[in-house]
Design a protein that fits this description.
Elements (H helix, E strand, L loop, with lengths): L26 H13 L4 H7 L19 H29 L3 H12 L4 E3 H7 L7 H10 L3 E5 L6 E5 L1 H21 L6 H17 L18
Antiparallel strand pairs: 1-3, 2-3
Length: about 230
């Protein structure tokens, strides 16, 4: 029976009576063999075995809900799902390029729309499309940056928020970013007939909804807000 030798340097190995026969004469030779194995290219079959296959997502089946037929449910959920898909994209882009959140942008935009570029806090709260309950906190942040100014007239309880010249300049840059994103992720998927149909649908639903005077002012946005 031949004497076993080290797989790296070829030196004879001492074989004990029990246990697994040694393959290397020293820890140094064992480390060299390990490094050599690491340098060898991985065979394609082994590479495929190492790739973790993605687990397919379970198929979601719409179930019956009270008051809505399946088509009605899908139409409603479509509004929510499109908003959930699009708004985070617009929010991230706007924040990274301008430092404004969508909520802050919308407050500035609603002020800019007015002929005198100002609104009462209660009216502003009702006009804002995103997180209206936090209008007072949003306005406070914008005021710290010099983008808006709150004015309280003597003898009147209502607080007016006014867009400053600096706020109008920053809003102009933000509109360039935001509405370019709106075109990219929303408008470009619609043709003229789609746009006209959507405008008509939103107007019909909006006009059938309770008017702002029928609804309580959002929390934290009363006439006395400061």
């Amino acid at each position: 029976m031949s004497t076993p030798t080290c797989r790296v340097c070829g030196r004879p190995l001492s074989v004990g009576e029990q246990g697994r026969p040694p393959q290397y004469c020293s820890a140094a030779c064992r480390q060299k063999a390990y490094r050599a194995r690491r340098r060898q290219p991985v065979r394609k079959s082994e590479q495929n075995r190492r790739v973790r296959r993605p687990v397919p997502a379970p198929e979601i089946v719409e179930k019956d809900v009270p008051h809505l037929e399946r088509r009605e449910l899908l139409a409603w959920r479509g509004v929510l799902e499109v908003q959930t898909a699009i708004l985070p994209i617009l929010e991230t882009e706007l924040r990274e390029r301008t430092g404004l959140t969508l909520s802050e942008f919308d407050v500035l935009y609603q002020l800019w729309r007015m002929p005198d570029k100002q609104r009462r806090m209660v009216d502003l709260a009702r006009a804002v499309l995103v997180t209206p309950g936090g209008v007072t906190r949003i306005v406070a942040r914008l005021e710290e940056r010099g983008l808006v100014r709150r004015v309280s007239s003597a003898g009147r309880q209502a607080v007016v928020t006014r867009l400053t010249p600096r706020g109008e300049r920053e809003l102009g840059a933000a509109m360039d970013v935001h509405f370019d994103g709106v075109r990219r992720v929303f408008v470009r998927h619609l043709d003229d007939a789609d746009l006209d149909r959507l405008i008509d649908l939103w107007a019909r639903i909006r006009n059938a909804s309770p008017t702002p005077t029928d609804q309580p002012a959002p929390s934290g946005a009363t006439d006395e807000s400061t």
